[in-house]
Every structure is written in C-alpha cells, then in structure tokens.
Amino acid sequence: MAHSLSSLVSSFSLNPINNNNNPPSPTASLPVSTLLFPSSSSPKFSRNGKGASRKNRYYLAKSADQDLDTREPSSQQVSSENGAASSSAGSGNSSTSFLSILCPLLRLFSGGDPSQERNNALEVAMSSLSTLARFPWGSRSLSESLESQDMTISDPSMLIQLFEFEACPFCRRVREALTELDLSVEVYPCPKGSLRHREMVRSIGGKEQFPFLVDPNAGISLYESGDIVKYLFKRYGKGRSPSMGLLESTLFTGWMPTILRAGRGMTLWDKARQDPPPRKLELFSYENNPYSRIVREALCELELPYILQNVGAGSLRTKLLLDASGSTEVPYLIDPNTATQSGDYKKILSYLFKTYSSAFV
Predict the structure, then answer these.
(1) Structural contact between residues 298 and 118, judged by C-beta atoms closer than 8 angstroms
(2) What are residue 214's DSSP bridge partners?
(3) Which of 62-76, 144-158, 343-357 has the weakest average pLDDT?
(4) Under DSSP, is residue 282 helix (H, G, I), strand (E, B) or coil?
C-alpha cells in the first residue's frame, strides 16, 4: 500500500487471530500489512489494551445505498472531498453530488465556531427533532428480548473499532445497530479536515470511505454500512437479523438529522489540538439520545478518539453507568487524562472545547 502504518505500530507485538467463524465469504479478499491498534481506556470500565492484528481486508457486495465517500478504487482514481467524500472518476456517485451541494449550505447555517456560546434551547430542539426523524432506531437494546430466548449478548474480547463522523447518515445506521446489539466500541472520529484518522482509514482499507469498521476479534475490516450492520448482527446478534428499518431507512430519515443539526459533527474545528490525548475518553450514550448527540458532535469536531459505552433502554451495561454516575441518565463523560467526569451536556461541551483547544496550555 502507498501508506504504511508500520511506524505507528512498531512497538506492538503480533497476536495471530483465528479467522474461523468469519462472516459469509466476501466478494474479494486482499492481503494487507499486519496492523495493531493500541486500546487504551478508563480505569473503571476499560478492556485490556490489546492490539488488533489483521491479515485480510474484505469488500462485501454493495448495498443499495452507497456509503460516503467512494466506490471501489479504480485503476485511475480521482479523489475529491465534498463534505467527507472522495469519488472514483466517472462513478456518478449521487451521495457525493448531493454532499457537494449540501455541505456548503450546512456550514453556512451551522452557527460558526462550535466552541462559542450556543442557543441551548434551539440546540436541544433541533437534536430532539433529529431523534424523532430516526424513531425508533438506536434507542433500545435488544438484550432483554435476546435473553428471553436464551441468547445473551457478551462483549467481544477486544473492542471493535469504528471510523466514522457524526453527521454521516450511513455511519448513523451503524451506530444504531451497535446500540441495539448493546456493543461497546472504540470510535475514531473522521471529520472533514481530519489530521489523523482519515489517513489511518486510507492506510488500512485503501480508500477514504465511511463508515469503516475493524473487528480485531475476527481479523477483518469492512466498508459499507449495510454490510457492516449485517456482519454485526450475524457475529454478535446470536442469529438475529437486523430490521429492515435499519437497512433501508437512509434516503429520507437518515439525512434528516444531518440537515436538522446543520452539519454539526462534520468538520474538524480549526482550533482543535493536533495531538491526541494519551488515553481515550469514555462516553456513556445511546445513539438516538438528543443530548448525547450534541456531545458526540463535539468529540467528532475535535477528532477525539473515545470508547462508546452504549446504554440504550434495556442495556445490560446500565449498571456500569449507575456505578459511575449514580444515575442512568446520559450522556456521561469520563476523561481519564484529567480525572474529569460529568453528566451535564453543556458542561461537557465547555470542558471539551477548552481542554482540547490548541490554545489551551
């Protein structure tokens, strides 16, 4: 590959992964360099920091909705970023064309600098309308119904890694599935202008398209939101299939939160610190919570990697949240780098933009 991550991972040792019980045979399989990801987390709820080794990447059959940002690489690929998009020459990607018009408009109405004081009533109102647009997906865990069928959900031994950005409707679909499956993941935000994580996606997968998922437990990586959702349900849903709503709801309702939120969580803040914190932040959230959405947007605009603890209604990990905060309300943020914990979204926003500003000393 043109870009290598070997310099980033030279300090980590290789642990081969057994690829038995992988998802259905992909349409193509290509060898890539072995990649290890460090997994850091907070003292209370962290998993052991194990790296993910990969020997193959998989490109599954295309879903009806083409994800952002590109189709399969062609022999002569032309990259162009429109919002978050790069497209192959002559591909005619309708999502890319739509973004080229939508993104400048969203930036115009986004309210400018995300660190400045906001109209909180308007922010919550628009985020609540976004929640209604995606009702009922991403609000409830399937843990209870699966348990009743003797199909309990257990966390994978290593955290799944998701590369995405908050404003992307296709990424939203994957996050909704993660909420329903009660899975915690490492999130690597990839806003437009990303300094680190977009380069990682290009190096690992060969193209800049989102969402992009790496599962170190199976040693595979996936593009395409529909394929990712199907894979997650097959591997972690104990045989349960995703609802049609999750797979087919992007065209209208999927774009509504992006439009209603005026592109929040789409572009890197120009004053964000270039260096990542030593340890990942941790956020208790569920996808369709209006207050959590506002916090996730900020984490994306600051390109801060974090561990997402999904606690939808009926989640088995609600006790973790209760032990940490004394409440079951979300969002709840834990920053192990400063020993800061907060459950007030307005205080969280202020804290994040102050602490992780390039001007902060």
Answers:
(1) no
(2) 161, 221
(3) 62-76
(4) strand
Q: Which of 61-75, 113-127, 170-184, 193-207 has the lowest mean pLDDT?
A: 61-75
Peptide bond into 290 cis (omega under 30): no
Query: Which pLDDT belongs to residue 241?
Result: 77
pLDDT of residue 254: 77
Averaged pLDDT of the chain: 75
Tokens 């007030």 sit at which residue? 344
> What's this model's pTM, rounded to 2 decimal places?
0.74
Are 58 and 42 spatial neighbours (Cβ–Cβ below 8 Å)? no
DSSP letter at 67 equals P
Question: How far is residue 83's CA from residue 167's CA, in Å, rounded to a whole number?
Answer: 10
Q: Up-side HSE of residue 83: CA atoms within 13 Å toward CB?
A: 34
Q: Which residue has the tokens 């595979």?
A: 220
3-state secondary structure of 185: strand
Cβ neighbors of 274 (< 8 A, separation 6 or more) are 195, 358
Cα–Cα dist 263/21, whole Å? 39
305 in Cβ contact with 186 (< 8 Å): yes
Query: Residue 329: exposed, middle, or buried by beta-carbon count in 10 A (0-12, 13-18, 19+)?
Result: middle
**Of 166, 187, 185, 173, the residue nearest 137 (C-alpha):** 173
Q: Are 316 and 26 in contact (CB under 8 A)?
A: no
Q: Give SS3 for 7.
A: helix
Q: Can you spell out the DSSP letters for 292-345?
A: HHHHHHHHHHTT--EEEEE--BT-TTHHHHHHHHSS--S-EEEETTTTEEE--H
Picking from 218, 229, 207, 209, the residue whose alpha carbon sits closest to that of residue 163 is 209
Q: Dump strand ranges (E) for the chain.
A: 28-31, 56-59, 160-164, 185-189, 212-215, 220-223, 281-285, 306-310, 332-335, 340-342
- Residue in the structure block whose two tokens are 């591909």: 91
Q: How far is CA 329 from CA 137, 189, 318, 325, in A?
A: 19, 24, 10, 9
Contact 93, 66 (CB under 8 A): yes
